């Protein structure tokens, strides 16, 4: 029973890792790093959604994000992928 719960937990972390920005050369994040980065990413996306700015403008106008690890990760994303076609 415990093995199955642990397996489900590990699968949930793997799913979460697949939705947060990662560096191409990065190995698997630890569970705590995954949670911290996911929380920061959710907070970032929430702030971005409530602004009228493009991603790079939002980062530049938000001192909290300007020099953060998350901002470095976000620079690796292809934001055109997310734009409506």
Automatic annotation (TrEMBL):
Task: State one molecular function term (GO).
Answer: RNA polymerase II transcription regulatory region sequence-specific DNA binding
- Domain of life where this protein originates: Eukaryota
Q: What is this protein called?
A: BHLH domain-containing protein
Task: From the UniProt record, give one GO term of the biological process aspect.
Answer: developmental process
The scientific name of the source species is Adineta ricciae (Rotifer)
Write down the InterPro entries for this protein, in alphabetical order. Answer: bHLH_dom, E-box_TF_Regulators, HLH_DNA-bd_sf
What Gene3D superfamilies does this protein's entry cite?
Helix-loop-helix DNA-binding domain (4.10.280.10)
Q: Where is the BHLH domain?
A: 1-45
């Amino acid at each position: 029973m415990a093995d199955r719960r642990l397996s489900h937990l590990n699968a949930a972390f793997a799913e979460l890792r697949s939705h947060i920005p990662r560096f191409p050369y990065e190995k698997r994040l630890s569970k705590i790093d995954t949670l911290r980065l996911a929380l920061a990413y959710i907070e970032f996306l929430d702030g971005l959604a409530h602004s009228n700015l493009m991603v790079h403008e939002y980062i530049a106008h938000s001192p909290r994000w300007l020099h953060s690890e998350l901002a470095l990760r976000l620079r690796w994303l292809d934001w055109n992928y997310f734009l409506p076609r």
